Amino acid sequence: MTYKNWYLLLAIFLFQNLTLAAINGTISDKSGHPLRGANILLEGTDLGTAANEDGTFVLEYKPESEYSLEVTHIGFKTKRITTTETTDLVIVLDKDVFSSESVVVTGVGSERSIGHTEVSVSRFIGSDLAKTISFSDVSQMLYGKMSGVDIRKASGNIGGGWRFDVRAGGGLNGDEQPIIYIDGIRMDNDEYYSLYAGGQGVSTLADLNPEDIESVEILKGPAGATSYGTNSSNGVVLITTKRGGDQNRTDEKNYTIKYKQVTGTNEQSYIYDNEKDGLYSADDLNAVHTPGRIDHRNLSISGGTPALNYYIGLDDRYEEGLTVNKKQNYMDRSSARLNVDITASKNLSFSVLTNYVRNIRTIPDNDNSILGWLANTYWAVAQYDENGDPVLNSADDNDGSGRANGTQQYEPFYFLDSSDINKIYYWVESKRFIGSISVNFQLADGLVLKGRVGIDDSRTNEEKKHNSSFPDIWSIENKQGFIRQNQELTYEIGSSYIKSIGSVESKTSITTQAYDQKKQGYGFKRLNYIAPDISITGFNEEMPYKDEEFFHFRDGGTAFTEELSMNGKYFLTFSHRRDFGSTLGTRANQISYTGFRFGCRADRAFNSFLPSFINLLKPRIAYGESG
Question: What is the pLDDT of residues 268-278, one digit of tens each?
Fold first, then answer.
């Protein structure tokens, strides 16, 4: 045999081995559409790949016998196949209509997919809606979209206060509010009433930019206190902001730039009518509601490499309310965000998340204040003469029935003239920084150590002034002010260990949290300040009211969680939380909360007994202590 024949045989041998050393196939949905970016993982190894634009994939591996692949794609159910075939595999994924594969946080240091979790978690994906809709604030984004959670607003005014109502309220100490975490940092969620504006407050949550939010999860039921302690007895709101990563672009660029600009108006949704609504001043009431302008601009840049992922968000929103005087109700919010994730090595990663917001709002007095537009139009006052007889619209109306026929005169703006209402301003400016640094270190196979420190620091200036006199309530040139400084520090350190024993997977985690809040405020009231230059000298100025307050609060606790999963069908969790400081005070500075949870994917465990149209059936039971 010649050397040429040897070379030919060697080439054929190598070619056959190379072709056999790869697993290839196509991934699509039920309609035959290719699923670009689907992940393929060879079980029992670290080998994996992703599907190309046409849904095809190639995995460099030569199986010696039967092997198993796990295929995942966002919005589709995970599929596992076991085969000996290596070429032209056809894998079809089913849509996950219940989002059962989506991973949610179920406690401190605990995560599970929706299909596996045994706790009640409402989840909302904000990034999808924000692509096509412009939201004024987070309350507008969440309204009516999460089961068991209601958003209560104090008024329809732009920039006004709002609160969460989880499972009809209640809660320890009666404040009815869940605690809120943004990227693992506990944040200030007060609705404060420093200066009276007709019963409506100003919410610190209005500082959040909806364009930066990736998802919102609300943890309800016993899992709240057993994982996050006393303060979470009425639930936990977990907000996650957007991060960078692989952009999956066909041109292979590793960044994406998006710009969105929205212009529009806020319109009056209901037109008042005298006959239908039983009013005498519908025309005046409608006249004080006029369209408000909306201008919104957002720029975001996201990208990533194997070592660095980043997200940059710049946002500017100006929005006016319906109040006829636009200076009395508008919001002007500017926000800048930078989120960076750094992979320093195979076992070490860092995250630095920062956000700065400047938010200016003006709030008009509401309907239960005689200094507002609504009270002076809705509450039109009947007119009587000096003898106590009704003042009629004309002499011909004197039929003795007066009000019954609507002939009596009713005067709007009885409490305060419209020109005086125009001079009342309630102005609020907040400057806020929220930031955190976190680190994850894989000490050994399955063992991860983590730590995080974060801050929520804000300064709010409130000012309300009235330039006309009103007997017994407002003196001429009256000005009130309040300065609110709030700083909240969050510390977290913990570890988790994952181990598989046969068909049982165990995850053990222990996490310690600490929280430190300092809040101080200064209020004042000035009379006869007349003009800023005279006010500085104090000429003829009175300061009848001053107030200063200081508040310092600390708490924390340690949570232990043991999670067991068997064959993806049965799930059991035990959790125990011990608070070493709490809102209950010094007499109860050591409080323990214990919880048990069990869930079963009945559609998997008993699929042979269930109809084929049942895709998700998950009975669960839970016990927990919430104070």
Answer: 988 988 888 87
- Residue 603's nearest CA partner among 4, 82, 96, 34 is 96
Q: Using DSSP bridges, classify how beta strands 48-50 and 39-42 pair: parallel, antiparallel or unpaired.
A: antiparallel
Handedness of CA 130, 135, 137, 142 (dihedral sign): negative
Question: Between vectors from CA 40 to CA 39 and to CA 43, what angle results, nearest 5°?
Answer: 130
Token pair, residue 209, equals: 């930019």
What's the CA dihedral at 580, 584, 120, 184 to 10 degrees? -50
DSSP letter at 406 equals T
DSSP 8-class letter at 212: G
Q: Residue 159: CB partners within 8 Å, gap ≥ 6?
A: 137, 202, 206, 319, 321, 329, 330, 331, 359, 361, 362, 363, 428
Residue 331: count other Cβ atoms within 10 Å of its Cβ. 23
As given in the structure block, the two tokens for residue 351 are 């995250």
Residue 251: CB atoms within 10 Å: 5
Nearest to 237 by CA among 412, 344, 131, 105: 105
AA identity, residue 46: D
Residue carrying the six token digits 């300061």: 543
3-state secondary structure of 574: strand
Cα gap 341→308, rounded to integer Å? 6
**126/140 Cα distance (integer angstroms):** 11
Q: If you search the block for the tokens 């009211």, which residue do you land on?
A: 545
What pLDDT shows up at residue 452?
95
Alpha helices (H) in 381-484, listed in sequence order: 418-421
Q: How far is CA 361 from the centre of its chain?
A: 20
Max CA pair span of the chain: 134
- Find out whether 296 and 335 touch, Cβ atoms under 8 Å: no
Query: CB under 8 Å, gap of 24 or more: what pairs does 72-81 form?
Result: 72/38, 72/39, 72/41, 72/101, 73/27, 73/35, 73/37, 73/38, 73/39, 75/99, 76/29, 76/35, 76/38, 76/101, 77/101, 80/43
Task: Provide the pLDDT confidence category of residue 402 given band limits of 50, 70 and 90.
Answer: very low
Contact 316, 336 (CB under 8 A): no
pLDDT for res 510: 92
Contact indicator for 239, 210 with CB cutoff of 8 Å: no
The average pLDDT across 312-341 equals: 94
Whether the CB-CB separation of 61 and 84 falls below 8 Å is answered with no
Beta carbons of 218 and 233 less than 8 angstroms apart? no
Dist CA 315 CA 279 (whole Å): 42
Q: Which amino acid is at 34?
A: P
Residue located via tokens 């504006």: 197
Strand partners, 457: 433, 487
